[in-house]
């Protein structure tokens, strides 16, 4: 762990990612205490450009964009982690089960995974979210379901690799129960690549949920979710670009920070690349 | 090769069957009575009954699935709730528009992404490499709708160099022969039609290509870095081959093979991104059609478009595998 932190510290891009993420976290934790309500309408102050009083301007309802951004950031950062968390649990459960059990169960699970991976991710997420009904929770579930097969694939291949190791044979020979072997030996030893997958997926979870919000399938007004805010302000983007660009750039920064960190983690878990970079 | 093709096609059957089950299940996932939800609160009992009959909702689930698959076999993807037209013909009408910008975007992405990846890998940890890594990470992190909006603002609204949206200037009358604006513009012989089609394509193609070029650049860089550490590359160097010969004659060829898979898979993913891009640029393809269907809760269209996207995805994967086997003798031997 100390070695990993040392490696990340020497990786400039990872540090840039950590810096952006730290700044975003600070903004969404402290910011809401300093700004007005994100839903406070002031029709006398609509579409004001950035300036004193409204540092990022106001939208077509006169709502303060800075306030909407710092409140919306709470949703966005939580969305990334919760969506990946759900996808991780579902995917790893079925992936490890498939890899460890083998036989017909492996075939059935992996064919379902193949079928789900036969859809462009965003298309399947859109179709599921449209079926479940438009809401932030449903959009998050839709994205998590779409993402789970990726975890299942990685988990299965890791479980297969780990299952053939001597210490797993030894655990079997000792008569340890299957569940214990799965959790104690297979899962623990397969966790590295899964964590890389998870860290790389947080960014795309945010991006996809924001895209669903943009299409009207995610957060509903007046919730200050960034993707939905870009969409809501699109009609005013030419005359008052700050209304749509603010939340758009906020999504970019959040996704970029996770991708920078995820990228460095991927380098760390790939020994050949680690030696080339480190 | 023939045996490989047959085996690959046979392996598609169970996956295709499951894809059909997933698409079929979509309408059945709608909470409550799908017919009532789809028609909205103002629907009469007879309208609800008619839709239930159209979607076979009164039958047992397995029979519903059978009807669905039997309909598909005859090219029946259902009827749009909004227009009353068959979904398949509506999709086929819009498919060329989506393919036109997607294919152009793949070409642009390959031409931009590959050299960037190679240059980056041959100068690891240099200023250029860091710049490319930051730019490509920004590319994959950028929401398509943000990039689209930025390009529209800069090149259409502020500079006035390119059209904001649409597919062809409104004063041009071009017959829809092939559905591809470039080809139709050329066939029409109308002055300025090809130029207009090209100008309209630039922004949406850039948005679609940005993600793919960034992904491809990152991938080529990573595989090149790995290949450059391989024994045979070291042997080539030891033989006294020049740096250029080693990189372009040996390492690049090996690194580009896996890149074909990435281009194939990301092309299919890009089709999904077309929903956002087409919506912002009012590009009349399947993506925008799907967006309008979401707005209207036109579920047969969402279902049909989802299936078409999945079929395009599977077809692309199949083509990639075939191409891979053609190009890599090791894969062919393994498949025998």
From TrEMBL, chain A:
Residue ranges constituting the ABC transmembrane type-1 domain according to the UniProt record: 73-262
Taxonomic source organism: Alloyangia mangrovi
Entry's Gene Ontology BP terms: peptide transport; protein transport; transmembrane transport
Source domain of life: Bacteria
Classification via PROSITE patterns: ABC_TM1
GO cellular component, one term: plasma membrane
CDD domains: TM_PBP2
Protein name: ABC transporter permease
Protein family membership: Belongs to the binding-protein-dependent transport system permease family.
One Pfam family, short name: OppC_N
UniProtKB/TrEMBL annotation, chain B:
Domain spans labelled ABC transmembrane type-1: 95-324
Its membrane topology: Multi-pass membrane protein
Record-annotated membrane-spanning stretches: 12-30, 101-122, 134-161, 197-216, 256-281, 301-327
Pfam families: BPD_transp_1, BPD_transp_1_N
Signal peptide location: none
Gene Ontology CC terms, in alphabetical order: plasma membrane
GO aspect biological process, one term: transmembrane transport
Localization terms from the record: Cell membrane
Keyword Phosphoprotein: no
UniProt keyword list: Cell membrane, Membrane, Transmembrane, Transmembrane helix, Transport
InterPro entries to which the protein is assigned, alphabetical: BPD_transp_1_N, MetI-like, MetI-like_sf
CDD domains: TM_PBP2
Domain of life: Bacteria
Family (UniProt): Belongs to the binding-protein-dependent transport system permease family.
Protein name, as recorded: ABC transporter permease
